[in-house]
């Protein structure tokens, strides 16, 4: 299936998500261009993690459509109409997205290498040798070439998270999602993970969407920052503008609270 | 109790049991009891295997299958857990012939006990699979893995380790339940105990030795399961 | 030969209902023994005196790991050798009660061990006697969480009562066997017994869940 090379890579169109009576995301419109690096910040409960989870199809949306690489993700075309996507369609489009989780979620019964080989072999159908080479290359890139045979329980948090990044990259996604990937790490391990993300951004053609509390990193690394509040985007813009000269009162309050604590 | 002391206990019990039997007078009933013990072990092993073979599909069906299969699994689990093993044993023994199904008593015994323990086992499997963290499932979605593959390669291997101790308890329950087959005239250890008692009237010795035999076998089961658990856990956490 | 004879079913129903009374009596008496003896065993097991705790642990392990049937035989056939002759019903209920006391003792033990050490320490600081400590501080906190587990053992005990048929106690299973052997029709009596147990277990399971919910709510909002 060909994708539009001119439109946005990710597009949220009037997307709403409710948990019972609680509206977590309210008619969200968001466009992300190819190779754009976007950081999402905001207080807890503002809906930022939900944005990522719905894109990764971990949650179903209640209203609206999400588009990825020029075609709908959550819906599909049937007889000229847009209907909710079936499993086959989801699996096809979902393959373009990869995700790194806050708590790593590495497979504990597999070594780092096997973790990175598992999906390419069993989902993409790669030959074992080829998958092994790809995995080894990626582990080298994240700085864990000498730990290929280690199991997750033998690795530090920062190392596990770097393996998780390699594992996601092994599927050659076009969009990478990072859900508070340093929040569960001890402070001294945060840097090594951020360095890998920085490297990814400069050396690879990847659209990156990050939910993060690391304001310094968001400021220095992103092309755009979105501040979420109450299920909507309160303010968004270039990092220097949003951090340096926030227009909305809520943005100012949040930034001063965060920077005070940091 | 650690592994080694349990193993030592089992060996001591067996040796004590057998050496006590070297007294000539015990030779009156000991061979008979040993014959019975063999049958008991046979039924235990057969029943345990059947229980596992039945429990895993039943649990997975109850959790993930479309509704006709799911209802079947739920019905099986509820009926076999809700009625007692003896009733099930008798029912299969007396009623199956009416349906034209003629089985040897030994087979009926293994069938009844295996299905009974299998129903409890299904709940153990279900509990262990549910206990695998949600994050693991989400990682498989992020890697675009189909559900059956995720279950087979990622979830079940992790559930396996958690399952082993409860299964150990269930296997011991099965061992104890084998005594029931004496009531449908199968010559197991319990039956032989009563038989030898009628012949020799050495009531105290016979029943004490029989209790010790059962204890020894159950200790062996516990030792076996602990060993299995340590092998399985090594697969999850090498280098610890 | 007819597959299921409804007339026969109605004929045998009264006898089975009479027998079910015996079954229920055996269950309740057995469980009373199990619940009380179980608590005693649990406390002995946790004693700091190793001469008490270790033999108790051994006893519990021994009883738990061997079949109830053999234990029933033991009480019924072996005790008379020592001069203790018990009627079948008493022997059977005693054996089942002691067996399940060992299960209950493990349940009590986990409940007691879950009490934070601070509770014991506060009682010492307030100079409360061990008896008062147990009665007013420990037991009221230890029991409610374990009631569901005890309830499950009650149901399990109920389902073990057919074992009493082995020593000819006229409970449900024995009655069904006798009825069956008189007419050579076993399907109806045994199926009815099975259905009876199934229905009673489902009712008991529902009751236990209601007790669980009640305790949950009253524990989370004490005083409501």
Walkthrough of the structure:
The complex is a heterotrimer of chains A (262), B (240) and C (224). With 262 residues, chain A is α/β, with parallel strands linked by helices. Helix content of chain A is 37%, strand content 26%. Chain B is 80% helix and 0% strand. Chain B contains 9 helices and no strands. Chain C is an all-alpha fold and 224 residues long. Helix content of chain C is 79%, strand content 0%. In chain C, 36% of the residues are buried. Classes of the chains: A alpha/beta (262), B mainly alpha (240), C mainly alpha (224). Chains A and B meet through strand 8 and helix 3 of A and helix 6 and helix 7 of B.
The biggest beta sheet of chain B is recorded as: none
Order of helices and strands of chain B: HHHHHHHHH
What CATH architecture label of the domain at 19-171 in chain C applies? Orthogonal Bundle
Radius of gyration of chain B: 21 Å
Compile the SSE list and pairings.
The complex is a heterotrimer of chains A (262), B (240) and C (224).
Chain A: E1 10-19, E2 22-32, E3 37-41, H1 48-55, E4 63-68, E5 71-72, E6 75-78, E7 81-84, H2 87-94, E8 97-100, H3 112-122, H4 128-141, H5 157-169, E9 175-179, H6 187-203, E10 207-211, H7 215-221, E11 224-229, E12 232-237, H8 239-244, H9 249-261
Parallel strand pairs in A: 3-10, 3-11, 8-9, 9-10
Antiparallel strand pairs in A: 1-2, 1-4, 4-5, 6-7, 11-12
Chain B: H1 3-20, H2 30-64, H3 67-82, H4 85-95, H5 105-131, H6 134-142, H7 147-177, H8 189-200, H9 203-236
Chain C: H1 6-45, H2 50-64, H3 68-78, H4 88-113, H5 117-125, H6 130-160, H7 172-183, H8 187-220
Helix pairs in contact in C: 1-4, 1-6, 1-7, 1-8, 2-4, 3-4, 4-6, 6-8, 7-8
What is the structure about, briefly put?
Chain B is mainly alpha-helical and 240 residues long.
Main features:
heterotrimer; A: alpha/beta; 4-stranded antiparallel sheet; 9 helices; 12 strands; C: 224 residues; mainly alpha; MetI-like fold; 8 helices
């Amino acid at each position: 299936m060909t994708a539009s090379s001119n439109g946005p890579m990710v597009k949220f169109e009037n997307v709403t998500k409710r948990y019972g009576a609680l509206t977590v995301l309210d008619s969200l419109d968001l466009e992300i261009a190819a190779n754009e690096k976007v950081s999402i910040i905001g207080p807890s409960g503002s809906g930022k993690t939900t944005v990522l989870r719905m894109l990764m199809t971990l949650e179903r949306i209640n209203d609206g459509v999400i588009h990825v690489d020029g075609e709908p993700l959550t819906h599909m075309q049937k007889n000229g109409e847009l209907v909710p996507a079936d499993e086959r369609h989801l699996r096809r489009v979902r393959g373009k997205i990869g995700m790194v989780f806050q708590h790593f979620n590495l497979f504990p019964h597999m070594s780092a290498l096997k973790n990175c080989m598992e999906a390419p072999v069993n989902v993409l159908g790669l030959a074992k040798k080829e998958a092994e080479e790809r995995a080894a290359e990626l582990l080298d890139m994240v700085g864990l070439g000498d730990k290929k045979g280690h199991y997750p329980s033998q690795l530090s948090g920062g190392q596990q998270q770097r393996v998780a990044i390699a594992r996601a990259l092994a599927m050659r996604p076009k969009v990478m999602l990072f859900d508070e990937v340093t929040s569960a790490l001890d402070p001294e391990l945060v840097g090594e993970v951020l360095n890998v993300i920085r490297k990814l951004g400069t050396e690879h053609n990847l659209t990156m969407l990050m939910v993060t509390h690391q304001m310094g990193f968001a400021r220095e690394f992103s092309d755009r920052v979105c501040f979420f509040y109450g299920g909507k985007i309160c303010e968004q813009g270039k990092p220097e503008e949003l951090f340096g000269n926030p227009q909305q009162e809520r943005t100012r309050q949040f930034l001063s609270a965060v920077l005070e604590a940091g | 109790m650690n592994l080694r002391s349990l193993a030592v206990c089992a060996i001591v019990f067996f040796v004590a049991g057998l050496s006590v039997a070297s007294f000539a007078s015990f030779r009156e009933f000991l061979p008979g009891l040993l014959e019975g013990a063999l049958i008991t072990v046979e039924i235990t092993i057969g029943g345990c295997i059947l229980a596992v073979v039945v429990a895993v599909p039943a649990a997975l069906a109850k959790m993930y299958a479309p509704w006709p299969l799911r209802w079947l699994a739920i019905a099986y689990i509820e009926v076999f857990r809700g009625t007692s093993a003896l009733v099930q044993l008798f029912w299969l023994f007396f009623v199956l012939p009416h349906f034209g199904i003629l089985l040897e008593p030994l087979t009926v015994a293994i069938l009844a006990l295996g299905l009974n323990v299998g129903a409890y086992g299904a709940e153990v499997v279900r509990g262990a699979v549910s206990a695998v963290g949600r994050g693991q499932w989400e990682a498989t979605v992020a890697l675009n893995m189909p559900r059956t593959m995720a279950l087979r390669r990622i979830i079940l291997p992790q559930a396996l380790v958690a399952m082993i101790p409860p299964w150990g308890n269930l296997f011991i329950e099965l061992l104890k339940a084998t005594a029931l087959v004496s009531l449908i005239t199968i010559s197991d250890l319990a039956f032989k105990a009563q038989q030898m008692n009628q012949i020799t009237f050495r009531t105290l010795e016979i029943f004490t030795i029989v209790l010790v035999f059962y204890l020894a076998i159950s200790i062996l089961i516990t030792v076996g399961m602990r060993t299995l658990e340590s092998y399985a856990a090594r697969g999850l956490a090498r280098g610890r | 030969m007819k597959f299921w004879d409804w007339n026969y079913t109605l004929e045998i129903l009264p006898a089975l209902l009479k027998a079910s009374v015996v079954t229920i009596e055996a269950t309740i008496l057995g469980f009373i023994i199990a619940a009380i003896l179980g608590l005693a065993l649990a406390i002995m097991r946790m004693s700091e005196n190793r001469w008490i705790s270790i033999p108790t642990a051994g006893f519990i392990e021994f009883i738990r790991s061997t079949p109830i049937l053999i234990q029933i035989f033991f009480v019924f056939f072996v005790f008379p050798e020592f001069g203790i002759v018990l009627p079948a019903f008493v022997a059977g209920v005693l054996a089942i009660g002691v067996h399940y006391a060992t299960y209950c003792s493990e349940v009590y033990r986990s409940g007691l061990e879950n009490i934070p050490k601070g509770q014991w320490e506060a009682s010492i600081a307030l100079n409360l006697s061990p008896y008062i400590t147990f009665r007013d501080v420990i037991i009221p906190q230890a029991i409610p969480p374990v009631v569901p587990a005890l309830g499950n053992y009650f149901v399990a005990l109920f389902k073990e009562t057919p074992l009493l048929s082995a020593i000819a106690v006229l409970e449900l299973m024995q009655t069904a066997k006798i009825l069956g052997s008189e007419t050579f029709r076993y399907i109806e009596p045994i199926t009815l017994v099975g259905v009876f147990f199934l229905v009673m277990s489902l009712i008991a399971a529902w009751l236990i869940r209601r007790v669980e919910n009640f305790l949950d709510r009253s524990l989370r909002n004490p005083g409501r």
